[in-house]
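DM from R.C. (forwarded with permission)

"hey, sorry to bug you on a friday — could you get me a structure for this? deadline for the figure draft is monday and I only need the backbone to look sensible"
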Amino acid sequence: MNQILAKVIAGAVLLLALAAGSYWWGDHNRNNAWLANQAKSALKAQEKFDAEVTRGNDAVAALEQDRDALKTNYSDLERKFHDPRNRVPLVVGSSNVCPGGDAVTVDVQAVASPSTQASGDGEAARTADPGPVLTYRAIWMWNSALAGADVPSGTCGSADTSTGACAAASGLTLQDAWDNHDTNARSCADDRLRYQHLIDFLKGKPQ
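My reply, with the result:
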């Protein structure tokens, strides 16, 4: 009887040991799987972070490259502007406007938008006394400075800065230039405001 009881107890202990071992093994496997998933998640997160850092560095490098190119453009323009400085005027008297009072239309490239450059409607030049009129040299310098690149006006440009090409009246007056400056200043102010709101939003700053 005692032997039978001992065998029953031994069998029960063995079953319990097997059950405990199976549970431990299963729990161990579950822990390993969880740790593996965590490692994969951490690796993916690190890869995403590294990719964003690389993207940010590339963006900064591209920005610096474009800024250097822009500085070079302006340096080149300064040298080109300096050449005709002492021989070609920026303004001429209103009597130099084309015969018949018709203004010369300024031939400029649309670099950003028409509102960012001096236009050549010539309304002011058609008045009885428009006052000093800007030469093609002035319009060339004005629009090129806005564009950061050579923007010829009429026949005046970096390819031809001769007196004949640049000293002629463009038909635009100082008032036209002032009106254009006002338009540009308002546009720049609006851009600064929008960019600042974008920066604040990206940084998560409260408005």
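R.C.: lifesaver. Residues 2-82 form the longest helix (81 residues).
me: no worries. The chain has two domains: 1-82, 88-203.
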